[in-house]
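seq:
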Amino acid sequence: MTDLTAVILTKDEEKNIAKCIRSVKGFAKRIVVVDSGSTDRTVSVARKLGAEVYVHPFEDYSHQFNWALDNTGIATKWTLRLDADERFTSALCRELSEKMKAHESDSVNGFVLDAWLIFMGKCLKHGGSRKKKLMVFKTGIGRIEDRKMDEHTLLSEGTSIEIKEKFIHCDVKDLSSYVKKLNWYAAREMQDYFEHRFPSKGLGDNKEISSLRDKKARYYKAPMFIRCWLYFFYAYFVQGNWRNGREGFIYSFLYHLYYRMLVDAKIYEQMKYKRKLGSIGDLK
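struct:
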């Protein structure tokens, strides 16, 4: 068992939380779940599996996770940022244990992980479906940046390295839940568009995040309502999501086209009506 606390944010994650906790139970010394008012069995399942559960109102992901860092008494050397629909493999746990021990006292303060995306029961191995993110960091050195969408972990000092083994991103909820989540994401990204315009400065050592922000900034320079079609064409045909079969097409259609079109529609709506941007809150 490693000197690590896993922090998991939840809201109605009864279908996912058990597999998530079990995947790190023998790896993390402590598991903390911060729930924002689940109406299902999320809290009881988490407690039954040995997790410490805190309840706190949700404003956005960054505030919720940073609240967990500041208010749940994390005293372990390392902290893990984990979503309820993510799982660790035994091979990943072994590699992380070795890397954490090797870099316990040097300037490597974080580890970047890559994911296998499981969508509608199929692993999307081709194309640009996988996403890297800094998930493990030395306690007190990493925090989530203040954004509404695509919130990355930033290190106050030191560097990060990539881990070879991948984690699994697998949401077992149905497509109705997924589409509902995309609408929630689109509202958050619309706000980020007006509040941040996707700057790439101030990200310290993390060149990967800067590169992602630069790509998104270039995307938003393309014409509204056309850029989503260009993105879909690039992701599906050029990057090769077509090789993932029907599941790959459904994923690309929903995420690379429908979602991006929805973001543009919300941006256009905001430009037209100029409504005050308030708190979006959690997923209803």
